[in-house]
Amino acid sequence: MSAEENVAIARRFIAEQDRRKGPLPPELCAPDYTTRILSLPPMDLAGHEGMAKVFWAAFPDLTQTIEDVFANEEKAAVRFTMTGTHQGDLMGLAPTGKQIKIAGTMTFHIVGGRVKESSCMIDEMALMQQIGAIPSS
After folding, report:
1. I want to staple 30 with a disulfide (CB 3.0 to 4.6 A). Which of 102, 116, 120, 129 is the partner?
2. If 0-12 CB within 10 Å is exposed, 13-18 middle and 19+ buried, where does residue 87 land?
3. Which has the closest alpha carbon to 77: 104, 107, 119?
4. H or E element in which residue 127 lies
5. Rounded to two decimals, what is the model's pTM?
6. CA distances from 132 to 72, 123, 137 (A)
7. Are the C-beta atoms of residues 56 and 22 closer than 8 Å to each other?
8. Handedness of CA 137, 57, 28, 47 (dihedral sign)
9. Structural domain tally of the chain?
């Protein structure tokens, strides 16, 4: 795939995840898709979707705005900002109604037009501070 095609795949992956509120577009994921999200162990497609559903349930108005995207013939990297309102349970943390705006990155290993592997990191500390789970100073 060309770098331009991989940029388009990365953009579509994130846009579709926002549109679907977590579930991933199956046509963009390889059958043996794996991901690493935060510090969790590697997950398959079902694991990624389960984790994403938890996050979108906690932040139902969540959107990811792409700030930068870079790619070559095999990989793409996206820097994004997540915004949303804490309206649902987040792993035992009751909804606070607080707004979040946090930075994140996602990398993609793309083979034959499908994402084989991804890795996602977000600013967990900022997230916890913004919803009041930990002090900000």
Report:
1. 116
2. middle
3. 107
4. helix 124-130
5. 0.92
6. 39, 14, 11
7. yes
8. positive
9. 1
Q: Are strands 29-37 and 75-85 parallel, antiparallel or unpaired?
A: unpaired
Q: Give the residue from 85, 116, 106, 124 showing the smallest Cα distance to 14.
A: 106
Say how many C-beta atoms besides its own lie within 10 A of residue 127's C-beta.
Answer: 21
Write the DSSP assignment of 68-111 as a string of letters: EEEE-SSEEEEEEEEEEE--S-BTTBPP---EEEEEEEEEEEEE
Tell me the H-state helices in 21-74: 45-58
Domain with 64 in it: 3-130
Q: Is residue 136 part of a domain?
A: no
CA 15 to chain centre: 10
> Is position 137 within any domain?
no
Length reported for the chain: 137
Domain harbouring 8, CATH code: 3.10.450.50
Tell me the per-residue pLDDT of 8-62, one tens digit each, with 9 for 90 and over: 999 999 999 999 998 888 899 999 999 999 888 999 999 999 999 999 999 999 9
Task: Yes or no: say if 38 and 122 are a contact pair by the CB < 8 Å rule.
Answer: yes
